[in-house]
Specification:
The chain has 305 residues and is α/β, with parallel strands linked by helices. It folds into two domains: 126 residues, Rossmann fold, CATH 3.40.50.1980; 111 residues, Rossmann fold (3-Layer(aba) Sandwich), CATH 3.40.50.1980. Helices cover 42% and strands 15% of the residues. The strands form four sheets. A four-stranded parallel β-sheet has the order 2-1-3-4. Strands 10-9-11-12 form a four-stranded parallel β-sheet, with helices on both faces. A hairpin with a 2-residue loop joins strand 6 and strand 7. The longest helix has 26 residues. It is globular and about 65 Å long.
């Protein structure tokens, strides 16, 4: 009896472990960043299933129910997934949420207008066309942006789970160091290819271009995915024939037939890329793997054989 009383006293004196909040993240890259910050404390849930383009996703009843039961929702933002903002406003208006594109501490880039991404000299100045009203939402492709987002994710998690705030902060700091090293690794690998002309399937990569110092010359379509005007397609075709564009990055948003159309009778290498990480295993390793895969594709596609 005495031993039982002692055991009961110990149990009563031991504080119950704080329950880690239920966290939802919209896309695979954001989910990976959240997983890096949560570490061993818990695992976030992914809203958009793997293998599905975020632009084409629709929520199942169970996924919609998960939104209503979440303690924290971390998502990219309205300019990338407007349907997600509408869904959260409808199903979970009072849930703590973090829209990463609306945060501060990083430099957004304006959407570029058109498919000719080269700078042109006009009146003694270099110009490239931009929209003045909207930012490019593909910001996760710059590891410096992701580092800034890690801090905001840590703060949001600390608000939802104050007892573990210090752990979230340490995890975010460690992940930031990892991504900073990865950025330098990518820059070192790709620096010898500076000046090599290449095109992207659609204009979604300027954050990656900024991060590694390797700007694209052309995009087959603009950021909205609209097919190019005939004159733009003809100009890109001429650039390929002239050897000014030697590589084309193809993603799920690009019709693969463009590779044959543009490359007929010319040397045009292609590489398939996955900027949304929809074909990768979800988790903390996904985001670094996504960036390394993009660097691998650029290096292989741009390197002359």
């Amino acid at each position: 009896m005495r031993h039982s009383a002692i055991a009961l006293a110990v149990l009563l004196a031991t504080p119950a472990a704080a329950e880690v909040p239920r966290v939802l993240a919209d896309t695979a890259p954001v989910h990976s960043l959240v997983a890096l910050v949560m570490g061993d404390l818990g695992t976030p849930e992914l809203i958009v299933p793997q293998g599905t383009s975020p632009h084409d996703a629709s929520l199942s009843p169970s996924e919609a129910q998960a939104l209503t039961e979440a303690d924290l929702i971390v998502w990219t933002g309205d300019t990338f997934l407007p349907w997600m903002g509408e869904t959260i406003a409808s199903l979970a208006p009072d849930t703590l949420q973090l829209a990463l594109l609306a945060t501060e501490g990083w430099e957004p880039l304006e959407l570029r207008e058109g498919v000719d991404l080269q700078y042109h000299e006009e009146d003694g100045h270099l110009h490239v066309a931009h929209h003045a009203v909207a930012d490019d939402p593909h910001a996760w492709l710059d590891p410096d942006v992701a580092i800034a987002w890690l801090g905001h994710i840590s703060s949001a998690l600390a608000k939802a789970d104050p007892d573990n705030a210090d752990i979230y902060g340490r995890n975010a700091a460690e992940a930031s160091d990892l991504l900073a090293s990865l950025k330098f690794e990518m820059q070192d690998r790709l620096e010898p290819l500076t000046g090599t002309g290449y095109a992207v399937g659609h204009d979604a990569y300027q954050y990656l271009e900024r991060a590694v110092g390797l700007p694209a010359n052309w995009a087959v379509t603009d950021a909205s995915g609209q097919d190019p005007a005939p004159r733009d397609a003809a100009a890109l075709r001429e650039a390929v024939l002239a050897g000014e564009v030697t590589c084309l990055l193809l993603d799920a948003e690009t019709d693969p037939a463009w590779a044959e159309t543009l490359g007929e009778g010319a040397t045009l290498r292609t590489a398939s890329v996955d900027p949304d990480g929809v074909n990768l295993q979800p988790g903390p390793d996904l985001y670094p793997t996504l960036l390394r895969n993009l660097a691998d594709s650029l290096e292989t596609c741009l390197s002359a054989e």
